[in-house]
Structure formats: C-alpha cells, structure tokens
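# nightly structure sweep
# worker-07 picked up a monomer target from the shared queue
# config: single-sequence mode, recycle default, output format = structure tokens
# input follows
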Amino acid sequence: MEPQSDENRRLIEGAQTQTAAMRRILEDLLDVSRITQNKFNLKKEHIEVQGLINNSVSATQTFMQECGHQLSVSVPPQPVRLFVDPVRFEQIITNLLHNAAKYTDRGGRISLRLSVVGQELDIRVEDNGTGITEDEIGHIFESFRQSRTNQYTHSGLGLGLSITRQLVEMHEGTIRAESEGVGKGSNFIIRFPLSICP
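# output follows
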C-alpha cells in the first residue's frame, strides 16, 4: 500500500501475470477432470448473447493490450438468444480469443464475428497469426496439443482448445478450425442452435 519503486511495480505486475497464468492452468486441469469423470453439469438458460460476448471481450482485454493486438467485434443488430450455460459460453469465447492472441505476432489483428445462419448462430474468431499446418489441423482439439508453429514462450498445457471443443459439443454445437498454412493465420468457426424460446 506504500509508494512503490519502478522495479517493485514490475515485480508485482510479473507476479500478477504469473498468478493469472497458474489460475488458468488449474482451472483447465479441474475442467478436464470433471469432464472425464462425468461430473460436469451445465446450468443452461435462455439468454441473449450480446452481454456474454461483452464479458468475454472484457476478460481478454488486458492480454490483448499486452500483446498490442487490434480486436474487432461484429454482432448481429437484432437480439440473439441461445440456450446455454452463460459461464461456460463465456469460457468458450474467452478461450478462443486468448488462443488467437497467443498465436499471433505482436500488433496482430483479431476479429470476433457473429451472424445468424438459418436456425444457428455462426461465431468466427479469425487472426493473422502463425497459422496451423495441414498435419496439425486434424489434431488441434486434442488434449495437451500445442502448435509447433508458435515460437513464443507462453504458459499453458495445451488444454484450452480441447476443453472448448467439449464444451461446444455439450451445448449441441459444432466447432472446426481452418488455416491456409504457416504464417497465414487461422479461423475457428462455431455453430450453436438458436434458442426457440421467445
């Protein structure tokens, strides 16, 4: 609580960053354990998506700024409702945004775009980052899998995308990854069924 020197502030900021990274790792490990043991229960409700998207963007804002990335967000003008677990839906979007930031060179561009396609909500997270090789793209959602194209040092166990896929499928949605190769960015596409509740 006392005035801090520049060196102390850097140490404190570093400790906070490492603590946040450790928290993410522990949460991922707990989620994997719960899913594997069928102890993972969703608390679904009919809810508008806009507020959840805003929360997810806010959750990744600090990391985006640290990486110097530009994030653009596009949502449908009309209200969109899904039957989802709000906490887990936010986790899905946050995981994809965090993943995009992690595998994009400093000062990169990331976009989050939502659109209604028939009776589904199409969610796309695109980046101009390191991309995914043809060999890796078929395994990208496996547990403990991390892309070899990432030349940066980031903490993590390679569980984020695996958990994301399982959460999407538990919501009766689909997810896939696309990339034209190394250095050409990546695109993650999710489809969720729209809520039939008025």
